[in-house]
Structure formats: structure tokens, C-alpha cells
């Protein structure tokens, strides 16, 4: 079975740098797709699975460990960004507020940001942090793609019902929005996610090579 063009491209992704705020980010050029999610939504696991790497994005059993904007180089023109997770982090209020400020700054000021992937644990969708991202997406008309992660934790019928219920809840969202089931453990939904990333990053579609006569 042939590899998806994005699977081949993302397999070579490498860590570029971490930044606390926009002043520390790489030059604001090219194409950038950011990944957001509440703590313990499976964000790092999803990034690793989509890039077919085991430890590109750090995973931790301690939720809330991602405190910086982490940039990954796809090629000279394209990057993925792992945004700070919120929800369970055992840090003081002032630090959480600073994280929120830094995230807001990145989302509002980053010109090369072309799409946002929001991870939501399929068992706990549309929590407060998810609503904040949805509101920001609506206000800025930023394309949003939702991964209902950990889909393997539910039976297929229940997972499909949650997908339909969530889609119905978001039907009036004004910005471009799509959503799907996803499981980093089983690889469910990778093809659909790669299609969306390829669209946003404007990865050229490879021409089919015809055999010589």
C-alpha cells in the first residue's frame, strides 16, 4: 500500500525550537499549522502518530507539562506548532494567566498561521478551553479542524454518535470547520487528518508517474 504524501513528508519533521511568546518565534513566513488541546487530550500522541515518530512531541503522564510554543520544521516553508495545554496543570494562577496571554498573542499575531487543529478527548468534548479556541477561530475566521481523540476508548457506535452530536453542536460556527474521529493508538483517522494538513500547508499533489512504454 502506497504511503500518503503527507506521511512521507511528516516523517522527516524535526524539532526546531521552543518559544515562550511571539518575540521568540521563528520568522513569520511560510505556512504554519498549530495543534491545541486541553491537558490530557492526547495532543502530543496525535502529533507523534501523524508524523510517524515515537517521541517527536514529548508525552507525559503528568498533564500540563507543555508550557511553551514548540515549533517543528516540516521543510523550509512549513512548520507544525505544539501549543501549551491547559486544564490540569498544577501551577499557580499567575503562570496559567501568562500561558493564556502568550497563547492569545500567538494566535492573534501570527500571520503565517493557516490552520488550527483542536484535539478534544471524545469522552469529554467541548470543555471551557475548547470553547475559547472555537471563539477565537470564529472571531479571526481561522480554519479549524477538530480531532475527537482517543476514539478507541469508545465502541464504534458510541464514537460515531459523539461525532454527530458534536458536529450538530457546531453547525453554526462561522469559521471554516471540520471534525473527525481519531485514535493515536490505532491510527484511526490519519488519512483524513493528512488530507487536511496537506490542504492547509499547500503541499503540492504528486503527479502519478506513468510507467514507460
Notable traits:
213 residues, alpha/beta, Rossmann fold, seven-stranded mixed β-sheet, 6 helices, 33% helix, 21% strand, globular, disordered C terminus
CATH superfamily membership: P-loop containing nucleotide triphosphate hydrolases
> What is the helix tally?
6
**What structural category arises from helix and sheet content?**
alpha/beta
CATH class: Alpha Beta
Overall, the morphology is globular
Q: Architecture, according to CATH?
A: 3-Layer(aba) Sandwich
Ends distance: 24 Å
Question: If you compute it from the alpha carbons, what radius of gyration comes out, rounded to the nearest whole angstrom?
Answer: 17 Å
The biggest beta sheet is recorded as: 7 strands, mixed
Helix content: 25-40%
What string, H for helix and E for strand, traces the elements in order? HEEHEEHEHEHEH
Instruction: Domain count, please report it.
Output: 1
> Strand tally, please?
7
Percent of sequence in beta strands: 15-25%
CATH topology: Rossmann fold
Strand order, main sheet: write it out. Answer: 1-3-4-2-5-6-7
Mean pLDDT: 87
Low-confidence stretches: 60-65, 207-213
